[in-house]
C-alpha cells in the first residue's frame, strides 16, 4: 500500500498535502510491524488456507513508488528554492516574450491580472504602464513599483508602474 501511496498520492492539491500524513502514518506502522517477532510455522491443528507465512513481496526500496516520491520531493525543493531566490511574489509570471529589451521609460500593456506583458503600447490605454527601471534583482525596484516581471533565466527584472 505504501508503494501505491508514494506513486499515486500526488495528483490533486488536497492529495498532495494529505499524502505526507499518510506516508508518516505508514512509516509509524512499519516500525510497529518490525518490532514484532518474525513469523513462525503455523500450528498444524489450526485449519488455514496458507500453511506457511505469505511472501511479503519486494522490499520497499525495490519498488518504483519510493523513487517517484523522492523525485517529487526534489522537484518541490527546487521549485521552492527558485521562488525564494527570485524574490518574486508567487502570483507573478516569471517569463515574458521578447519585450525584455524594453528600455526604461518605454510603455507596455500589462495583462489584466498583472502577470505578464501583453504588448508595447502608446501610453494611452487602461492597462498601460511604464517601465520605470530595468534591474538585476527584484529588491532593486524602486518603491511604488506596481509590477515586477522577471525572466526565468535570471538576467533581469522590469520594474513597471501603472500610468494614472
Question: What is the topological layout?
Answer:
Layout (H helix, E strand, L loop, with lengths): L1 H7 L4 H22 L29 H23 L20 E4 L6 E4 L7 E8 L11 E4 L6 E6 L2
Antiparallel strand pairs: 1-2, 1-3, 3-5, 4-5
Helix pairs in contact: 1-3
Could you characterize the architecture of this molecule?
The chain has three helices and five strands; from the N terminus they run H-H-H-E-E-E-E-E. The protein is rod-shaped. It has a five-stranded antiparallel beta sheet with strand order 2-1-3-5-4, with no helix packed on it. Mean pLDDT is 76; it is low at 88-100. 11% of the residues are buried. It is of the alpha+beta class and 164 residues long.
The order of strands across the largest sheet is 2-1-3-5-4
Distance between the termini: 59 Å
Biggest pleated-sheet summary: 5 strands, antiparallel
Structural class: alpha+beta
Mean pLDDT: 76
C-alpha geometry: rod-shaped
Helix content: 25-40%
Count of DSSP H/I helices:
3
- Radius of gyration (CA) equals 27 Å
Q: What fraction of residues sit in β-strands? A: 15-25%
Question: Number of folding domains?
Answer: 2
What's the SSE pattern? HHHEEEEE
Total strand segments: 5
Quick summary:
The protein has helices at residues 2-8, 13-34, 64-86; strands at 107-110, 117-120, 128-135, 147-150, 157-162. It is α+β, with helices and mostly antiparallel strands and 164 residues long. The protein has a 5-stranded antiparallel sheet with strand order 2-1-3-5-4, with no helix packed on it.
Amino acid at each position: 500500500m505504501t508503494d501505491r501511496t508514494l506513486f499515486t498520492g500526488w495528483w490533486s492539491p488536497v492529495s498532495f498535502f494529505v499524502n505526507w500524513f499518510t506516508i508518516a502514518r505508514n512509516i509509524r506502522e512499519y516500525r510497529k510491524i518490525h518490532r514484532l517477532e518474525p513469523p513462525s510455522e503455523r500450528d498444524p491443528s489450526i485449519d488455514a488456507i496458507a500453511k506457511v507465512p505469505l511472501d511479503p513481496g519486494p522490499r520497499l526500496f525495490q519498488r518504483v513508488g519510493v523513487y517517484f516520491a523522492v523525485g517529487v520531493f526534489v522537484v518541490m525543493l527546487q521549485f521552492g528554492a527558485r521562488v525564494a531566490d527570485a524574490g518574486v511574489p508567487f502570483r507573478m509570471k516569471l517569463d515574458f516574450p521578447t519585450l525584455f529589451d524594453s528600455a526604461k521609460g518605454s510603455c507596455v500593456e500589462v495583462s489584466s491580472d498583472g502577470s505578464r506583458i501583453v504588448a508595447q503600447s502608446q501610453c494611452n490605454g487602461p492597462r498601460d504602464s511604464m517601465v520605470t527601471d530595468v534591474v538585476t534583482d527584484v529588491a532593486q525596484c524602486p518603491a511604488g513599483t506596481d509590477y515586477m516581471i522577471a525572466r526565468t533565466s535570471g538576467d533581469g527584472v522590469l520594474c513597471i508602474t501603472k500610468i494614472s
